Amino acid sequence: MAQRKSTDPPVRDGDRRSRRLSRGTRFVVTAYVICFLWGTAIHLVDLAGGGHNSYASHAPAPIRVYFVALVLLDPLAAVLLARLRPAGVLVAVAVMSVDVAANHYVNWPQITRHPDYPLRPLGLLPVTLFALFVAVTATSLYGHLARKARDSALSRTRR
Fold first, then answer.
1. Phi and psi dihedrals of 55, rounded to 5?
2. What span, in angstroms and rounded, lies between the C-alpha atoms of 127 and 133?
3. DSSP letter at 101?
């Protein structure tokens, strides 16, 4: 069993992995989880209001299917990240890459008519800002979570 430094705060076994993360890493994980849960809620409300036809009827079928699938993909990313799994970062990058591309594709006619359209607070702006946040933080976050997972696995084998 690995020894705890005397300066480390006492931790319960269940808290050990999350306590070792830096404050910045915990902030980034928390932001990801909150945003993916918010996205889940928005997609559930959309589906409850209009069913599978609630998404841009002029969009190609694969994009509409993807938007419906976000009801499962967003919480999957949130759960994996809340459990501090490195795979959660990979899911987050994939989901947000396709999500922002699909949203811009579907809204392209509006963007060309109204260049300020992407800056409106409801619509493309939050999706785009979150996708940029994921793009900027994903590599570092993946590294931190992968290291913590490896350290946790090593400490379990030493017991």
1. -100, 145
2. 10
3. H
Q: Are the C-beta atoms of residues 134 and 93 closer than 8 Å to each other? A: yes
Longest Cα–Cα distance in the chain: 64
Query: Are 88 and 145 contacting, i.e. CB atoms less than 8 angstroms apart?
Result: yes
pLDDT tens, per residue, the chain with 159 residues: 455 555 544 444 444 544 578 999 999 999 999 999 999 999 899 888 877 666 666 788 899 899 999 999 999 999 999 999 999 999 999 999 999 999 999 989 888 888 888 888 777 999 999 999 999 999 999 999 999 988 887 777 776
The closest alpha carbon to 81, from 133, 119, 123, 31, belongs to 31
CA-to-CA distance for 17 and 9, rounded, in angstroms? 13
Are 113 and 106 spatial neighbours (Cβ–Cβ below 8 Å)? no
Q: In this structure, what token pair is assigned to residue 32?
A: 């990801």
As a residue count, the chain comes to: 159
Q: Give the pair of three-digit tokens for residue 103.
A: 């949203």
Give the pair of three-digit tokens for residue 99: 């999500």
Residues contacting residue 94 through CB under 8 Å, at least 6 positions apart? none
DSSP 60: -
